[in-house]
Amino acid sequence: MAKSALLKSSIAKKVAMALSGLFLVLFLAQHFFINMTSVFSADTFNSISHFMGNNPLVQFVIQPILIVGVIFHFIMGFVLEFKNNSARPISYAKNNGAANSSWASRNMIVSGSVVLAFLLLHFYDFWVPEMVYKYVDVSPLNETRYFHELAEKFESPVRTGLYSLSFLLLSLHLWHGFNSSFQSVGFNNKYSKSLHTLGYAFAIVVPFGFIFIALFHHFNH
Amino acid sequence: MAPCHSTFDFRLYDFQTKNMKLTLKIWRQKNAAAEGKIVEYPIDGIEPDMSFLEMLDILNDELIVKGEDTVAFDHDCREGICGMCSLYINGEAHGPDRLVTTCQLHMRKFKDGDTIFIEPFRAKAFPVIKDLVVDRSSFDRIQQSGGFISVNTSGNTIDANTIPIPKHDADRAFDAATCIGCGACVASCKNSSAMLFVSAKVSQFALLPQGKVEAADRVLNMVAQMDAEGFGNCTNTGACEVECPKGISLENIARMNREYLSASLKG
Q1: Which of A42, A135, B3, B206 has the fewest Cβ atoms within 10 angstroms?
Q2: Quick check: B92 and A10 CB within 8 A?
Q3: Do B223 and A89 touch (CB under 8 A)?
Q4: What is the interface pTM, i.e. ipTM, of the complex?
Q5: Which of A11, A87, A94 has its CB closest to that of B232?
Q6: CATH of B16-123, one of 3.30.2040.10, 3.30.870.10, 3.30.43.10, 3.10.20.30
Q7: What is the pLDDT of residues B64-96, one digit of tens each?
């Protein structure tokens, strides 16, 4: 089979969507563990953040891959949504989607769009100032600035609220997306039930953990 | 001998004997090119033990008496095995009951005074021919592209029963083969994806030794035809599995994905 045909096929797109999603899940997990250290120890958080922010492998290899992964996942998500909507030109007068599927599974584009909007805010809040600090202003290295930068951001109740709301939608996105990714790559066997439990646990623990971190810094400022 | 006691508790059953009065909201469309619309039909005297299609037969009898055009709908065996009947009833393919086709759906699933929406299966790949009848020949073309095995029938045929097949595989293959190709999966999927149907047709052979020879070509050709027909992409909502009258499992879609990836990479 021609490689171009493979890349255009519905299954290839589905697998690409799943793999990029699983990659983002891994990123989310490490981001969660690093941020959680800020609750227990400012020093630990500072030293890990300093390492992540100044390690050439993280900065110039992993970070670009991550950005490409995020952009790919979102563009592919919108492309697939458009194609899928065009596969039913006339809608049903009455459709009972709740009878056979979860809200989260039917509204990945809604939860995904909220997460995208959140990411833009998040980049504006943290990533852009970080890039300006390091590569535009070329400010001196400061290993202790990270905790205060984090804590200051959550002083604002509006930002804390927006972040918390976004994490709720992220939870719904993961509720379907985590397990769906494994089904897409062909993983459906006797271990699937355990994997589903892990997926649902991840979809609750990580986003609500992020909400906890935001609220913790908001109320302890 | 111990006395015989009946354990049947009549209170657990809702014996609905009263005839029902219903309001039907049915999609009417003169032909494939015409624009359709929902038309309301009040109907009375419907018995709870009638099948859904009998109820439509009664409506059509009334329409004939009035000199109106009857409602066109697909049906054939009326015992749930041919895959001909369809209908999207109150927002669900084959109606609110589980593991049944429309012809096996009974009016006792509805209540006196109910309004029932009856629409055709909707998908770009299932264009409406008339009223509730849709063209599902896209499924036939998918089957023709690879949903078969090539066997020698010149007199040297090997009896399939002499080929040893693990019980587990035989059961899974048989489960997949129970797909009647009705299209409820496409109708229920928010993306109009045909992956459950195609995966069942791929799986029924992929699990058996007779299907191994053409396995790669089969999955590649069937998926290519599925995409060419304009079906949407599967996003794993699972609606197809819930609404499938034969209970075809999502496990088949995962198997098809594996078969497809493996066939593609072998190139």
Answers
A1: B3
A2: no
A3: no
A4: 0.92
A5: A87
A6: 3.10.20.30
A7: 999 999 999 999 999 999 999 999 999 999 999
